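Q: Structure for this?
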Amino acid sequence: MSLTLKKISQFLRHNSLKLRNVRHYCKKAEDTEIPVNPLKKYYSANDQATNGHIYDKKPFKYTCVAGKTYAWCLCGRSSSQPFCDGTHKNQFLQIKHKPIRFTVTETKDYWLCNCKQTKNRPFCDGTHLREDIQAKRTL
Ligand code: FES
């Protein structure tokens, strides 16, 4: 019984620290809005059912330029994360994931998913905070 209470208090303390960090980094209300990829409907790669390997357990902040097309790595094996470097084309690795092409409508900082488990590719939707993802090993 006391072991369970101890685990619950550890979980609450751990997650409240994360929430404090989120509030610290999200100074404006618009920072908390999760953007949507306007190219989602044009590329079938967005419909891939599975996700890639967990590259990192936290998102990456990057200044995206409006109208420019980017290729976000879904397989998690690229060496220029969070973007694709063509590693998925290596026949010996037998990677089935394809990169996600995306663009933005406004030039500003975006949080790009690095855990590769987001449901709103390529933008972080907070999925990396899941306990099972935090417990997994990265590549
Ligand atoms: S880094 Fe993947 S959902 Fe946040």
